[in-house]
Amino acid sequence: MLMDKFDSIFVLFDIGMLLFAVAACVIAATARPDAYRAADKQSKTFWTVVLGLTVLFDFLVWWGVLGGMLFLQIAGLIATIVFMVDVRPALSQVSGGGRRRGGSSSDGPYGPYNGGR
């Protein structure tokens, strides 16, 4: 009975890693290729292949085809974390993401802050 609980927890981890890798793969595939060069990161092809293989391995482990491939799952999880923590913010900064259009640095959440003037 206790092992059934552990199995269900591991299934949740498998699904979580799969969804995390899918999100990273979609972000990597939709980013512009020149943004990778401008951010001085590996190429779009590199990240798309690495994250695509991670999605494939995670899916096969979740499906039950690859049973004892924990090493590949951990390597894929590390690659996904590196992409989401390091590469994605750099791509966003180079591509102009995260900045509001037409705003300035003194704008607050409800409009410009002018010091009460």
UniProtKB/TrEMBL annotation:
InterPro entries: DUF2516. Signal peptide: none annotated. The keyword Cell membrane does not apply. Residues 93-117 are annotated as: Disordered. This is DUF2516 family protein. Keywords: Membrane, Transmembrane, Transmembrane helix. The keyword Membrane applies. It comes from Streptomyces bambusae. The chain crosses the membrane at residues 12-33, 45-65, 71-91.
